[in-house]
Amino acid sequence: MVANLYFCKTNYLFYNKTLIMMNLKLITLIFIFALATACNSNTKQENEALKAKIEALEKENNLLADGTYQMEMSMVNYHQTLQDIEAQLAAIDETKQLVEIKSEAFGNDASVEAEIDMHLRHLHEMNANAKQKIAHMSKSMNMLRRDNIDSHQQIHELENQTHDLARTVVERDLEIENLHQVVISKGLTIAALGEAYSRQKEYSDVLLEIINTGFYVAGTSKQLLDMGIIEQEGGFIGIGRVKMLNSDAPVEYIKPIDIRDTDIFEFDAKNASLITPHAEGSYEFNYTDKGKVILGISDKLKFWQETNYLVVELAN
């Protein structure tokens, strides 16, 4: 009798233990399934949100490309656009890192490849958006000057920020090219993206042209005043020592130059001085015995850092 009771009790405990173990396994499986479902749901939501961002950028980029994009011509809006581009550059850096990480974990997983493809598309659209907005801003800067004749210094600062961002975006282009090589080396196919990016690089050439284009004019004080280049008060870009460039300066007198291959200017004059500000030590004047003045630029980076305008006042 006692033996039977012991046997029943043992079986009961074993049975309960087995049920508990089965329940724990079932609970674990349910938890894993719920977690996987939640993760899949979150991933799906994130992908849908990313897809919406890409589509919005594509739409805006098409408007920028065909010239129908409308930007409010105000100082506030230009400042905001520059901030947006800076935020976009930060997002580009984050996306680059994400693509690099996901490429390492690729392992011929089709779902991972699809994610990488989507993030690369987002990266390309953000980069294209930044390029086209910078080009648009630079092109319309003169109009902003005419509409804000009392904000010369602020507009000059805007122009400098625009140029700095243009340089940064061009640098990002090289980094994205390197990223393409990393992705390809992991076995992913990005042929279509690569072709699209090649077309986007046309805007890099536009940015390089913006960065490396300077504007130059020289003349006596009277000539510069008569041409409408300078005036005693106010100014075109809000810089200078005493005189400043006129906000309505006629562009036909201002000669565009490529600052990459222009480092010597020669004038028929006894003396010359710079009206626009350029770093000391980045240039020098030399005087010949034939009545000529030669301006030599020894450090192009420093010389053009403050402004891409060069106004020289001559004295005979």
Spell out the key features of this protein.
single chain; 316 residues; alpha+beta; Glutathione S-transferase Yfyf (Class Pi), Chain A, domain 2; four-stranded mixed β-sheet; three-stranded antiparallel β-sheet; 8 helices; 9 strands; 63% helix; elongated
CATH class of the largest domain: Mainly Alpha
Radius of gyration: 32 Å
Number of strands: 9
Please report which band the strand proportion falls in: under 5%, 5-15%, 15-25%, 25-35%, 35-45% or over 45%: 5-15%
Please tell me about this protein's structure.
By secondary structure, this protein is of the alpha+beta class. The chain contains eight helices and nine strands. The chain has helices at 2-65, 75-104, 110-139, 141-147, 152-185, 191-212, 221-227, 300-303, and strands spanning 213-220, 230-231, 244-245, 255-258, 264-268, 271-274, 283-287, 292-297, 309-315. A four-stranded mixed beta sheet has the order 4-1-9-6. A three-stranded antiparallel beta sheet has the order 5-8-7, with no helix packed on it. A two-stranded antiparallel sheet has the order 2-3.
